[in-house]
Design a protein that fits this description.
The chain is an alpha/beta fold. Helices cover about 35% and strands about 25% of the residues. It has six helices and ten strands; from the N terminus they run αββββββααβαββαβα. The radius of gyration is 27 Å and the shape is elongated.
Length: about 210
Amino acid sequence: MSTSVIARLILCLGIALALAMPLALAEDDAKPQTLFTNVNVFDGMSDTLTEGMSVLVEGNLIKKIAKGNIEARDDAMVIDGSGRTLTPGFIETHAHMALMGPTISAMESNSTWEDFGIHSTRMAEMYLMQGFTTVRDAGGANAGLRRAIDAGQIPGPRYYPSGAFLGTRGGHADFSSFTSPPGTPSNFNRLNLAQDISGVEDVYKYG
């Protein structure tokens, strides 16, 4: 085979690969689709439900809402709502995932990281199953729960922790018992669920 023929073959192969590459990349980059059919839609704005709707979600974006059927890719996950109501995800702006009952004294004297971790895991799944797709934690929980949710290790909503409670002795962040001497670290201090502060420097230190 002559050099010119080989060169033409290489050129043709290169052109073919170049033409095929955008299609291959498009297929690889295609975001998963979820199609909800036969649902009543509550949009958060109207007092009434829109019945008999279909909703197409691509990745985490709502692509289309229409009456009746919507065309989706063959690999789309199709969920028949059977006339149930579909709503936007709820947002909880003040939660305490790590805090558990029945009393503060029980958490202070008889709880370890395992107890708080197991409770937080159950709370994360509970919020998600109740329709909350975003939760802001207003104090107590740290970044570990968020990392576990983001990594897919446990089910949960998008999660924004605020870290430890900060407050003065006798204030909202003081979980010590009535018999604890002043300055004695509480269980919440040791586990960094709460920190007592005495001025601006402590706010910077623990915040």
